[in-house]
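seq:
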Amino acid sequence: MNSPFPKSSSTPGEGLIVARLLSDGATSGLSAVTYQYPLKLITPSRLADPRSALVFLLSYGGGLVGGDTANLIVDVQAGARLSIVTQGHTKVFKSVSPGIVTRQKMWVDIAPGGALCLLPDPVQPFADSVYEQTQVFRLATGASLCLLDWVTRGRTARGEDWSFVRWEGRNEVWSVPDGMAGAAGGGRLLLRDAVILDSRQYDHNPQMKSLREAMHGMGVIGTLVLRGPLTKSLGDFFQAEFAALPRLGSRDFRSDEARAQDEQGLSPLEKWRAGRLAMEKKSKLIWSAANVRGCVVVKFGAPAVEDGRTWIGSMFARDGSILQTFGDHALMCLK
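struct:
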């Protein structure tokens, strides 16, 4: 018997988010949120902080099964502000074979004056998983982007230590003419950042270390990308703090007593910086910051996930501009 209903045109894993400025001209809302399995999107019915619209990016069952594909389109319209977060690690389950790849793709258009804050929890690839992630951001004049992309070594409680087959993350930031949102092609490429971790490249070469050894004890690595007027304060802050780091070979020959006396005359920022440097040294956290065609790119790594979370959360809190722009809910994954 033939069904009297037309065939569904929806595709598994497809999602759409449209953020717009509401009629009051100050509050951002969502005009469209759609998704299909395995992708899941949750939006609170009411926000205590109206500074940005909020969407939780999830997956059914708490993770992505080998071979799953998720494609998300995000449209941030003129003047709107959107925050995207998660409710925990994005888990990537094992693949039956290396040829079965789990994929996530995100295509984002940000109109003039619009802003997106994407601060998720890190991706957690399980042993024997194969994962590819591509995120493309197209920014019109005056648009702003705050993007955090990070990955962990896996489930440490189960002994996993970069035990996956392959993890690949790619981020692109484009500058596009006004009115070209959603149009294919055009624009100027500002940044293309790729991280590829492939355990197979070490299998047949005895001169090379394993992926685990190549990570030098890091348990999490990440990339932060900042672009646009609403993230300029944070970008300048990261660059200033990186410039203030002790250079290689520098040593402090003062006694503990002399150092304590000198620190009494420091400004609040200098005291905070001294405490942060001590924390970075103790946790063996490393990081760098650079300006690439108007995008501030921060790279960091830490032996423990919580050390990385504490560090980057403290940097955001000290600057304060993201909190003021997007509200407290935008930072929940950094606490």
